[in-house]
Amino acid sequence: MNVCTIGDLLLDVIVRIDDPITLDTDTFSKIEIAAGGQAANVAAWVQELGHQGRVLCTRSDDPPGALLTAELARRGIEVRGPRSQGRTGTVVSLSQTDGMRTMLTDRGDAPAFAATALDATWLEGIAWLHVSGYALADGLLRDTTVRAAAMAREAGAQISIDLASTRIIEQVGAPTVRGLLEQLHPPVIFATEVEKDSIAPPCAQWPSPETTWVTKRGAAGCVVTRDGRSRSYPALPARIIDPHRRGRRIRSRLSHRRRRHGPRDGRPVSRTNRSDALISTAAFTIASEVSTAIAADTPTVALETTLLSHGFPRGRGATVAIESEQAVRNGGAVPATVGVLDGRIRVGLNHDELQVFAQQPDTRKIGARDLASCLVAGVAGATTVGGTLAACRAIGLRVFATGGIGGVHRGYAERPDISSDLGELARSQTIVVCSGVKSLLDVDATTEALETLGVPLFGWQTDRLPLFYSSEGGPEIERVDSLSNLARIARTHWELAGQGILLTRAPDPDIPAPEIEGLFGAALAAARRDGVVGSAVTPFVLAHVHDASDGRTLDVNHRLIVDNAALAADVAVALQTTRI
Known about the structure:
The chain is α/β, with parallel strands linked by helices and 580 residues long. Helix 10 (316-330) packs parallel to helix 19. The two termini are 35 Å apart. The model is unreliable at 238-280 (pLDDT under 50).
């Protein structure tokens, strides 16, 4: 997806003050200088997320202007716009250790971009035009922005606006800003709470019922509101320098240095320095269909890739994956299959990418702990339940469909072995739709572990935990018969700081529990005899069971995975349409 931003390209000077400012003597600080301006920063984020970023701005021919243009080009960001003989603007951001900050802004020649200089070819091929609020502050650039938005819309592109600054709103005037928003009619508007309150009339659906408001809350993340319904998203992993939730973070080196090196004090790069902030979105390539769905709060369902690479014979896994994605679409949601390819976590795979996981026998099976090494090695990695949940947590996906989860292995007392799936469930605010615990595990011990971790366990229209291939024989669990009730439970659970939720669905058709127990007992004995351990146990045991059952377990596994995907789509729709 090609995203073009319009606004300022400025020299960004970040001053972090270690001590209170003292007059007539030195005040020690840390200073960084790089390319900046809101338009350039947004384009940089687009590029880091795996899409094509473009900046439409005035390009001054002075040394700073040449330096900034070269820096953007080095990052792969396209720069378009008229050249100017004037000077490049500068923004100096002053930040104290307590998070208080201000910005000293000299926009230079940035506002001198006249509509007569706008070249339609600069907007060719874009899917989205993002307007910085600074582009609406001055007459010349404002007229250019309005014209560019009209050109982009005629070409089929979407429009979004970031109000950017309360000072700009004061300077231009709230009535003028309201008029511009009504004229441009962007489907998405970004603003802090103060910015929104300063221009929005007391109508939740202004300027239209279709408008999506993204309220920026700094370290607290953001709130996405549409059709009167709101959904909160956590902040992405980053160093916090705006704890007072004024809505923006100081960016330097186009946000690149922070993601590469982290804070100077050596703490993890995280919004709260907790272990649950695992991955930076710089590691992701998100398909345009999925990223658009997330931005618009469209129901979305995550799917894993270990099932298609290690759960089925070569070739059949691709069929299961395609049918699962179609089941999600049939239910009114967008499928987001997760896997690692070419050093990136891919969310949303095309047909050829699915075939990579289905056809390559040496595809690495990766959980959350393996993501980093797999990315660095640049090898293909099929995500397990735990690995997929880590991705869900990083980008805010709330529903995930799979076959069965990992848990406590049989014989734990003699040889401790617990799947990392349980730990990821306890850290991710995601509903996992499955057919219970994998049959080769100690089901009772896994159920106890889920209770210890605070993970609610529900049965969809059943009072018993399904045993993956069997609908009966498991321990009693809480029954749910209404997805709207489940959605309310989930939202309340998350409001109370709870994390993962497990929704289990009985397989149909199934295989009687005693028969399954016998098949898996023999398969596990064979694994012990052959010295199979670790992540190799599951594929070994499944292959043994599939052969011993003449393929019946394979057929049930195929069916339940697709059925779980269909149920997950219904859950995602209910989660979007139901409020507490």
